[in-house]
Amino acid sequence: MVTIDMEQPEGRKEALRRMLTIRLFDETAEKRFLDGDIPGFVHPYIGEEAVAVGAIGALEPDDYITSTHRGHGHCLAKGLDPERMMAELYGKREGYCKGKGGSMHIADVDAGMLGANGIVGAGPPLATGAAFSIQYDDRDQVALAFCGDGGIAQGQVHEAINMAATWDLPVVYVVENNQYGEGTPVEKQHNVENLSDTAHAYDIPGFTIDGMDVTAVYEAVAEARDRADAGDGPTLIEAKTYRYRGHFVGDEEEYRTDDEVERWQREDDPIETFKQRLVDRDELTDEEFEQLREEIATAVDEAVEHAREAPTPEPDEAYEDMFAEPAPEIQHFAAQFRADGGERGDDR
Amino acid sequence: MTAHAELETEATDRMTVREAINQALREELERDEDVFVMGEDVGVMGGVLGVTDGLLEEFGEKRIVDSPISEAGLAGLGTGAAATGTRPVIEIMFSDFLGVAAEQIINQMAKMRYMFGGKIEMPVTVRTTEGGGMGAASQHSGTIHTWIAHFPGLKAVAPGTPAAAKGLLKSSIRSNDPVFFFENKMIYEDSGEVPVDEEFTIPIGEASVERTGDDVTVVATQRLVGESLGVADDLEGDVDVEVIDLRSLYPLDTDTIVSSLEKTGRLVVADESPLSYGTHAEIATRAMEEGFFSLDAPVQRVGTPDTHIPFSPPLEEEVLPSGADVENAINRIV
């Protein structure tokens, strides 16, 4: 189940568990990337956990989401299996995309996860399309698009929100303002103080909320989901949050100071503050929290071990999955490519 | 079996390319509730070139949707909708505007199936118009199908006859892959016999021999199919010209081209797109790879000489390939 009932202690504990899972998964992915185990890029979600967990916690299990290139948190909050996610990061066949997507493109349509996305601002048009299908078939679902503060500067995002607003489509747009679009501060990329101000242009509700507070995110998205589900159209929510790490693992972060990062971590950490709230309400003890941390750390380590040992795809699998119906070219060219019997050698 | 062969055995009606496309849309909308048509002015106006005329009255606003002027939004909406259970037919008014929508087309629509490890279907059709001849100048006259045919993950078709237009559009809509359906705007008024059977479809990836001949093969697309057939008539008695309507740009029917080449030994490729690095080069290369020893003369290309389409009529006429260019190409090699 994806839905988290934040009114209940068990729901709150589940929210904490999911945030902690995201944190430990990405800390581990970061280490394994630096070890040279994981190819490509890794864009950690560390620091932003409250946004994914609060937003997706307010959805029903069969609602759709679209994600960003910083998508691990969205996947885990949507209930995807860390083992198959890690296998995808390692480029293994058992991964969600059979090793064809990697960190930036994990998708599981069966879970309503329409893909992490390597293109900034590409998700909102897809979510608008999913919302169109929902309205067309009169289904009891909504679509939610995550988009960064960088993404909201893309023209296609405007088109997507405008269409959804015009047609009252059941969709929620969540802008994760983590203060930096790649290496440029948000205030150097936008003239408005709150990115939700743009909602006025579409005559839809727009809110800016504390994205470090999982409860605040949950409540805002729950309200927006109700509105979408009732046929009243989209909502634009800006969640102000903070990216603890660089844009990608290896980013030297010359655009900000260590002091700034430490201040956010010290004063506003979404996991620490929420945990403390639960402790203060006698819903959790420090010992229970440590136990939870150990359980999750063990599961993530097991996912890494499994991913490492999982079989790699066979080279021929590169030619599969292009089309539902045949295009003879692919098999023809693939055969010709190796027609001399040569194998891909170490000299390449 | 080709559409040409089917025409001999099935009941047909005479209609224009425009009517054939309209009929294909109507039949597929009737057949499948998941199909909807969305685009700029496709509803009340009936399409800027009249192709979707009457559909709004018959199917209503839910299924014939006038969209904002937002090509990227349209392409993205079509992609997201196709991924979640509907079967969109998106109209991009002029193919030049595919440039506006390129991100959603090349990075989302084309790649999602592959990047998701095959665990998604992408049943979206994009209809768009191509070609010069209307004095519409460079931003409304392009023939850009090579872009799409070149890009992995997309299929592209470009009919040259009313029957091909109907049969291919129905196949495109029924396909679970993204298919781009390129309509040359100068042949909307061309008429021909079209099968009336609602199950009449033409497989994507199958060319049609529209006229048989022994001396030279002309592989043509869109407007140049009709023009090449006219040239073949004019040359009858002197040169025996075989004319193939390529119909599908990707996948490409190499077998039909090579079989014809094996018979005639000579090949002309006539397609309105720019001549460099494109559709002509692909067909010529496949002919060379698969039929090298059948070639008795160099392959000839007829297309637009790498210019944009200018506005002034004498300039437009200068750059657009015509039947006369096909005839000259034939004469160079026979």
Automatic annotation (TrEMBL), chain A:
<dbReference type="GO" id="GO:0016491">
    <property type="term" value="F:oxidoreductase activity"/>
</dbReference>
<protein>
    <submittedName>
        <fullName>Thiamine pyrophosphate-dependent dehydrogenase E1 component subunit alpha</fullName>
    </submittedName>
</protein>
<dbReference type="InterPro" id="IPR029061">
    <property type="entry name" value="THDP-binding"/>
</dbReference>
<dbReference type="InterPro" id="IPR001017">
    <property type="entry name" value="DH_E1"/>
</dbReference>
<feature type="domain" description="Dehydrogenase E1 component">
    <location>
        <begin position="18"/>
        <end position="315"/>
    </location>
</feature>
<keyword id="KW-0560">Oxidoreductase</keyword>
<dbReference type="GO" id="GO:0044272">
    <property type="term" value="P:sulfur compound biosynthetic process"/>
</dbReference>
<dbReference type="InterPro" id="IPR050642">
    <property type="entry name" value="PDH_E1_Alpha_Subunit"/>
</dbReference>
<dbReference type="GO" id="GO:0006082">
    <property type="term" value="P:organic acid metabolic process"/>
</dbReference>
<dbReference type="Pfam" id="PF00676">
    <property type="entry name" value="E1_dh"/>
</dbReference>
<keyword id="KW-0786">Thiamine pyrophosphate</keyword>
UniProtKB/TrEMBL annotation, chain B:
<keyword id="KW-0786">Thiamine pyrophosphate</keyword>
<dbReference type="Pfam" id="PF02780">
    <property type="entry name" value="Transketolase_C"/>
</dbReference>
<dbReference type="Pfam" id="PF02779">
    <property type="entry name" value="Transket_pyr"/>
</dbReference>
<keyword id="KW-0560">Oxidoreductase</keyword>
<dbReference type="InterPro" id="IPR005475">
    <property type="entry name" value="Transketolase-like_Pyr-bd"/>
</dbReference>
<dbReference type="InterPro" id="IPR033248">
    <property type="entry name" value="Transketolase_C"/>
</dbReference>
<protein>
    <submittedName>
        <fullName>Alpha-ketoacid dehydrogenase subunit beta</fullName>
        <ecNumber>1.2.4.-</ecNumber>
    </submittedName>
</protein>
<dbReference type="GO" id="GO:0016491">
    <property type="term" value="F:oxidoreductase activity"/>
</dbReference>
<dbReference type="GO" id="GO:0006082">
    <property type="term" value="P:organic acid metabolic process"/>
</dbReference>
<dbReference type="InterPro" id="IPR029061">
    <property type="entry name" value="THDP-binding"/>
</dbReference>
<feature type="domain" description="Transketolase-like pyrimidine-binding">
    <location>
        <begin position="15"/>
        <end position="190"/>
    </location>
</feature>
<dbReference type="GO" id="GO:0044272">
    <property type="term" value="P:sulfur compound biosynthetic process"/>
</dbReference>
<dbReference type="InterPro" id="IPR009014">
    <property type="entry name" value="Transketo_C/PFOR_II"/>
</dbReference>
